[in-house]
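Entry 14. Structure prediction run on the chain below.
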Amino acid sequence: MSAGSTTSLLGTFLFRGASAALLALVLASCSTTAGKDQITTGSIPKSSRPMDTMNSGDLAQATATFGKAYDANPKDRDAGVNYANALRMSGRNDQALAVMQQVAINNPSDRGVLAAYGKAQAAAGQLEQALATIDRAQTPDRPDWRLVSAEGAILDQLGRSTDARGKYRDALVLAPNEPTILSNLGMSYVLTGDLKNAETYLRSAAAQPATDSRVRQNLALVVGLQGRFAEAEQIARHELTPQQANANVAYLRGMLVQRNSWQRLAASSGTKKAVQ
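Output returned:
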């Protein structure tokens, strides 16, 4: 994965571990100001882009822009949420959490703020607190599938895979065939070493019209871990630039030629991870 690219989840998964990748994908779908980690500013080309598609330069620019807006008016809800998201995507999790704590104090009943606050807590390793915050953001009579799925992601990181999969299936009742949920259900099986079930759900996710390249990169990883590298390479190259694809394929190849690749991957999921 190129140093400036944040487009593919495969590099994130391999470098940071399974739990981090799982949270990166699921928690990115939690509702904030626009339903995902997205920025709106005239300083960024085309004005609106998901943060996880930005290179390091654009992300640094976005962080500076929202930081100035937040400093000018710390009570500006949107500036605070966007600034915290940018900080978190940059790996500055403690700073992101501090910003979201203040935003949540000023907006204690705002569902979008609570969702973003829970995301920041999870990224900072406060998993139990994150579950409680996301539960507060949920409305029982109008449940949000993104929040239900986010609960599943946190439960997976806590090692409660059965409970996590129950949440994903609840989310699928609310949003049938939603690729984000299907992908995270697949990744849940990756965390427990069940690669066949993982592949089933990831293939279903990749087949949905609204899917994105991150889902396909996760599928490529699972296929590769089962020894079908030629197929994994073909999947990994889909919808990526040649530079991104070559970098991902090279890293995947290096990972899979080692006999203990799965053991290393599984072990890495048990350590403390940063959430992208």
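The chain has a mean pLDDT of 77.
Filed with the rest of this week's runs.
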